[in-house]
Amino acid sequence: MLAQHPAGNEKGVLAARFAKAMRACGAPWPGAVAVSGGSDSLALMFLLRDWTKQAGFPLPVVLCVNHALRPESAAEARQVSRWAKEAGLKVRLLKHEGKVPVASIEAAARGVRYQLMGAWAKRNGLKAVYVGHTQDDQAETFLLRLARGSGVDGLSAMHAVAPYPVEGLRELRLVRPLLTFERESLRDYLRSRDHAWLDDPMNDDPRFSRVKVRKVWPALEAAGLSKTRIADAAAHLARARAALDTVSEAVLARACRLCEGGVLLDSVALTKAPREVGLRALAMVLMTVSGSPYRPRFEKLERLFDNLAEGKLGGGRTLHCCRIAPASQANDIFGRGSVHVKREEFRSKARKNKG
Question: Is the same domain home to 245 and 220?
Fold first, then answer.
């Protein structure tokens, strides 16, 4: 369904803000822009096009993914293609050919989207994929992760520039230059261009957690919990996260050693560190060994940490596609607390096949 609105006068203001945001994030280029047809991604498409023209850089390539989740998906992808071509940009329509997910639809669709776009960008020698995440998304993500019981890592802000979240594509960058932009300001920008956008009916589907959060925004705003304040809190936590990462890396420099087939870990030194530091260090080990760009679920990570601290690892535990078990006598380099963390191939392969 198309949404059309009267024009305004936001182009100059948004363009200046966007140029500042691009300078702040270092603007890895050449790049592609992910466009779904929604207001956020369309605004990003126009802002990137104008920014590259002014900077003298190659124009962005528009990537549009047809997830085949709804009957209208193909028509919407064609509409995005028309808009991109009218804007003078090259466009690539990427279609998901596998099974349509019936469970965890949001996460499955996101995984498909990043996989298709990242693979195309890598094949074509690009450095980054730009996405239209906004301040609204930042605040919504904070609340969703708070509801899941996330720790500092989960609650900290999304980064403007991050490693690409797909295994095997980590040399790419995922860039979010709109994280300080309000969604409504981007819509005003499109109105000023007299340009329509697509409204995804899934954005009103109460089955999805993000939609539930959006429906309670009026009550939160009335209580003083504005999107800006929540996004600012996430940014504060991001700075705390960076400081904790530095300390955690120092702990790991003393408490772990690379070995054939994984990592040897001094569980005693790890669990004697301040709890938040120890949890973070353990998560870093699991991510490194598994190759996953995501951290383990916090409650499961805590359970494993407590097993290590209490000497209750037994024959071993499995988490995040890793097997965590007491080290063999030959690898007992840290004494009785030596733990061997290795990739669990069967689970890793099963996760890849599922994706």
Answer: no
- Please state the three-class secondary structure of the chain as a single string: CEECCCCCCCHHHHHHHHHHHHHHHCCCCCEEEECCCCHHHHHHHHHHHHHHHHHCCCCCEEEEEECCCCCCHHHHHHHHHHHHHHCCCCEEEEECCCCCCCCCHHHHHHHHHHHHHHHHHHHCCCCEEECCCCHHHHHHHHHHHHHCCCCHHHHCCCCCEEECCCCCCCCCEEECCCCCCCHHHHHHHHHHCCCCEECCHHHHCCCCHHHHHHHCHHHHHHCCCCHHHHHHHHHHHHHHHHHHHHHHHHHHHHHEEEECCEEEEEHHHHHHCCHHHHHHHHHHHHHHHHCCCCCCCHHHHHHHHHHHHCCCCCCCEEECCEEEEECCHHHCCCHHHEEEEEECHHHHHHHHHHC
Domain's final residue, options 225, 249, 272: 225
Instruction: Encode pLDDT of 32-44 as tens digits.
Output: 999 999 999 999 9
Q: Indicate whether 295 belongs to any domain.
A: yes
User: What's the structural domain count of the chain?
Assistant: 2
- pLDDT value at residue 68: 77
User: Mind listing the pLDDT tens digit for each residue in 187-200?
Assistant: 999 999 999 999 87
In terms of residue numbers, what domain contains 153?
A: 2-225
Segments of the chain with pLDDT less than 50: 1, 4-8, 348-355
298 and 336 in a single domain? The answer is: yes
| Domain match, 129 and 271 both | no
